[in-house]
Every structure is written in C-alpha cells, then in structure tokens.
C-alpha cells in the first residue's frame, strides 16, 4: 500500500510529510519527503496553544487559541501533502491512506488524557484521501501510556538495516524515547527523559534562537556537575517502564537549575542531562544494546552525539549513517502505523506502552461518498 505520514513535533519547527510503500509489516520502499517550516508567527501561535494545553481537562476542548492552532495545523498539513503529491507526481487517488499525528498539546497518561490538535475528517475531505488520526487515544483508553507509538516501525527498520540484536533506536525530539529490538523482534520501548525541548527553550529565552544549531553553543560551555547530578535525582529515571513524558515535565526545574549559569554552560549542562538520562535507560533493558542508532532533531546536534558516545561503549550511529532520513523518519513511521491500523494490526504492545493487550488504534476518516456518508470509524 502507498501511504503518506505527517508529523509536527513539540519542537514546533514545522511539518514533515513522507511517502512510503508498505504492507504493514515490511517497508517495501521509501518515497520522497517534504518539510514545511512554520513561520515565526505560526510558532508563536503554537507555543501559545501548548501553554493553553496545560489547562485542558476535556479532549474535545478547542476553545480560544486551541481552535486557532488547530486550524493552522489542518491547513499546514493539507498544504504539505498537496505539495508532496505535486512534487512526486502522484495523484491523490493513488494514495491509500494518510497517517495524521497532529500537534500534541498535552500528554498525561496518568489521567488518561492526551490531545493532538488536528481534524482528521476535515483533512480527509480536503485531500480526497482516507486519513487515520488520533493514533494515541485507543492505547491511553485501554490503560497504556499512549507513547511511544513508533517502536513497531523501528523494529521494521532494524530488520531492514540488519542491525545486530539487541539494537537500540533512539529518537531525540522534544522528549527522547528509545526502542530496544531483541531476538525474534522482541520489543521494549519507553521515554528516556528530556530530548531537545529544554535546550530549545533555553536558546529562545536567552538569545531568541529556535535551537542550538549543531550544538555549537553547548560545545563552547562546561557542564556544571552539581546541577547535573541534582537533575538526575528525579524519580522518573529509576521508574521501570512503561513510562512516558509530557514535553514540559522537566521544564521549570531544569531551567531554574541552570538560570545562574552562562548560556554556554547552561546549554552544555542540559545536553549532558539529555545524554546521561539516555545512558541510564540501559538499566531498564533486558540486555545492553550492541548498536545504537539516533534519529530525530537531536541526531543533528553534535554536542548531544558527542556526549552520548562518551557514555555508551558500543557504536552510536545516526539514522543518516544507516541510509535513513533523520528528518522524515517520524513522518514515515506514521504512514506505516496508518497502514497497520487499516489492517487491524497492533501498533502498541504491553512491552512498549504498558497497554494490557496489543492495540491497533487510530480513527479512520474518509472523504464523503456520493451518498454523503463518511467511511466507517474504527
């Protein structure tokens, strides 16, 4: 099947769209991908929505800034798909499904609450293509963490890349998560701790930059070990999986802890915080990985990569080293998940989100038929 995946992460940099071909098990081909950056005004709107998201108590809440942000998410994602199809020379009728993650504004599995802005039926109608959306909700409702949801895709990648077993595929977005792939496709996955979010927030507060390009500022600094050790005392790191995090989980504590440091030293300390928590995650794995592969925006941060290689004794590669796309990997994952959802195949498992039994998840929306009825909702 031919599928398009969409991703807008908590870094708020933009929309990634990617085309793949898959039967829901093997990845048959990677197609083209496209990135659509958000403007500064759009980022400002989304940051306001993230702030408002902390007050959400009902999943359907789209009042005020949340509704404005959802309109932006809908339109920007539709435009990106349309431009990708044009670039690839593919008609909408030749695409089976779109996997639409939306924009996470709150993720609190302890109270069974996760909200991703984005209107799946609206997008399906605009594109004329079936859309699988709200992919995390079924797992949360069934008692899982709702994250991470991409490990089943990581397993397919590990198989295609013939990685040694066990292997770890690490995604460093706003939050970092790891997938451990063992013999026979055995899976274990969980959020390890902060990813890029703390460093991005520091850069924005200190010098108005969206991120520390290539980790240049962090590489000029020196880590404050006492601050680092204090941050590592959080109960989250000793907690056994399943476990997942909201983007703002460490925000106040970490940024307050580095407030007295220079920007360079604060950045270095936060980079080491991310790397140290990733290294600590090995304690929750059945066996130490023989190889790590890093994806997500953190794979482009040379300071984070260097800090990881100091702490991890086995080879640490990037997705790019494997011939995979660093930037489009999560979008490709949601294309893959959408196909699995269509086929009723599980996307989350007890060993990845803690859900009691495997869950497919996702809600299917389709363009209105000539009778005016929508496709059945799963």
UniProtKB/TrEMBL annotation:
<keyword id="KW-0808">Transferase</keyword>
<protein>
    <recommendedName>
        <fullName>Anhydro-N-acetylmuramic acid kinase</fullName>
        <ecNumber>2.7.1.170</ecNumber>
    </recommendedName>
</protein>
<dbReference type="GO" id="GO:0006040">
    <property type="term" value="P:amino sugar metabolic process"/>
</dbReference>
<dbReference type="InterPro" id="IPR005338">
    <property type="entry name" value="Anhydro_N_Ac-Mur_kinase"/>
</dbReference>
<comment type="pathway">
    <text>Cell wall biogenesis; peptidoglycan recycling.</text>
</comment>
<dbReference type="GO" id="GO:0005524">
    <property type="term" value="F:ATP binding"/>
</dbReference>
<keyword id="KW-0067">ATP-binding</keyword>
<dbReference type="Pfam" id="PF03702">
    <property type="entry name" value="AnmK"/>
</dbReference>
<keyword id="KW-0418">Kinase</keyword>
<dbReference type="GO" id="GO:0009254">
    <property type="term" value="P:peptidoglycan turnover"/>
</dbReference>
<keyword id="KW-0547">Nucleotide-binding</keyword>
<dbReference type="InterPro" id="IPR043129">
    <property type="entry name" value="ATPase_NBD"/>
</dbReference>
<comment type="similarity">
    <text>Belongs to the anhydro-N-acetylmuramic acid kinase family.</text>
</comment>
<dbReference type="GO" id="GO:0016301">
    <property type="term" value="F:kinase activity"/>
</dbReference>
<dbReference type="GO" id="GO:0097175">
    <property type="term" value="P:1,6-anhydro-N-acetyl-beta-muramic acid catabolic process"/>
</dbReference>
<comment type="function">
    <text>Catalyzes the specific phosphorylation of 1,6-anhydro-N-acetylmuramic acid (anhMurNAc) with the simultaneous cleavage of the 1,6-anhydro ring, generating MurNAc-6-P. Is required for the utilization of anhMurNAc either imported from the medium or derived from its own cell wall murein, and thus plays a role in cell wall recycling.</text>
</comment>
<comment type="pathway">
    <text>Amino-sugar metabolism; 1,6-anhydro-N-acetylmuramate degradation.</text>
</comment>
<feature type="binding site">
    <location>
        <begin position="9"/>
        <end position="16"/>
    </location>
    <ligand>
        <name>ATP</name>
    </ligand>
</feature>
<dbReference type="GO" id="GO:0016773">
    <property type="term" value="F:phosphotransferase activity, alcohol group as acceptor"/>
</dbReference>
<keyword id="KW-0119">Carbohydrate metabolism</keyword>
